[in-house]
Design brief:
There is one protein chain. By secondary structure, the protein is an alpha/beta fold. It folds into 2 domains: 184 residues, Metallo-beta-lactamase, Chain A (4-Layer Sandwich); 129 residues, Rossmann fold (3-Layer(aba) Sandwich). Helix content is 24%, strand content 25%. It contains 9 helices and 19 strands. The radius of gyration is 20 Å and the shape is globular. This is Putative mRNA 3-end processing factor.
């Protein structure tokens, strides 16, 4: 039996024919295993979904309670499907995110989904799942991407708040994972004042708080009663899409910030009109990506979700077997 007999790419996503299940499929399928709740991995309309309880909750928040025909919570114990064993372990990416290891007839494959090895106060820490094949993302798979200490990046925001106490500080952060992590980092930096959040963040922030993650006092930034005077010198978190909407006009001379691994590329920050770029990523950077492969030492590394060519070249130079999966239909919601 070959590795590709256990798992291989299709137009709908990674498919395990033995168990007749897909992992993170991009179109509705009868049975799906989902690594986490970002829209490029978690879609509605599947016949059945197996995922962590938090991911299932997040999918219900985003897509409605009827997002799937049936659901099953992946717990600490492996799940058997048609003789294939599936194990879930934390990926360190966002709340509920998991890696999935398939085991069958002595053969193992770990699908990492999106993962991060930096400490994250809003989700469980990444855990290694050694296997014969490691399927890795390649979002930041270029040597130029070396992400700095997130607290140092939050320090830039604190410095700006002191320098411009009359200006609202608008921080762009994606709704699931990044927004809550940024809020938690701001709290860790000693900011005790209320933080204002865009309405699209409210349900997901409330869910994080229900899960025991302390985000401090959050106030809605969408009510008509929120004035320019009230938010002057305050922090407002919103999805990047909101920055190009009339909603922005309610804030006084805002300092525009954006928290993303892509802020390491100055042209991206300039193109977005970002005055305060903060390089905060929920993905592995190049050093952590290559370190993970070295530590896990898989027989084969399968590469997807990003810059496959550079990582393929690194595999060749280090005498490793690499394979680009070239899956289509995935976009980088998480950054």
């Amino acid at each position: 039996m070959r590795f590709s007999d256990l798992l291989h790419p299709t137009e709908r996503g990674l498919y395990c024919p033995v168990a007749d299940v897909y992992i993170d499929p991009v179109a509705p399928v009868p049975r799906a295993l989902v690594t986490h709740g970002h829209a490029d991995h978690a879609r509605a309309g599947h016949g059945a979904v197996l995922a962590t309880g938090q991911t299932l909750d997040i999918m219900a928040l985003r897509y409605g309670a009827d997002f799937t025909g049936a659901r099953q919570v992946a717990g600490p114990d492996p799940v058997q499907i048609n003789g294939v064993q599936f194990e879930f372990a934390p990926a360190g990416h966002v709340l509920g995110s998991a890696q999935i290891r398939l085991s069958h007839r002595g053969m193992t494959i770990t699908v990492s989904g999106d993962y991060c090895r930096l400490p994250n106060p809003t989700c469980a820490e990444w855990q290694p799942l050694p296997a014969h094949v490691f399927v890795t993302e390649a979002t930041f798979a270029l040597p130029v991407f070396t992400h700095p200490d997130p607290m140092g990046e939050i320090g830039k925001l604190m410095t700006s708040l002191r320098a411009f106490p009359d200006r609202a500080h608008m921080v762009g952060a994606y709704a699931l994972g990044k927004a809550q992590r940024v809020i938690a980092l701001i709290r860790a930096a000693g900011w005790d004042a209320p933080i204002y959040i865009h309405g699209s963040l409210q349900a997901l922030c409330a869910y994080h708080q229900e899960q025991g993650i302390d985000l401090g006092e959050l106030r809605p930034a969408t009510a008509e009663t929120v004035t320019k005077a009230e938010t002057a010198g305050q922090i407002v978190i919103a999805p990047p899409s909101a920055f190009n909407s009339p909603w922005m006009r309610r804030f006084a001379d805002p300092v525009v910030g954006f928290a993303s691994g892509w802020m390491q590329i100055r042209n991206r920050a300039k193109a977005r009109g970002v005055e305060l770029p903060m390089v905060i990523s929920d993905h592995v950077d190049w050093p952590d990506l290559t370190r993970t492969i070295q530590e896990l030492a898989p027989e084969e590394t399968w590469i997807t979700h990003g810059r496959e060519d550079a990582l393929m070249r690194w595999c060749e130079m280090t005498q490793r077997v690499g394979r680009p999966l070239r899956l289509v239909g995935y976009e980088d919601e998480a950054e």
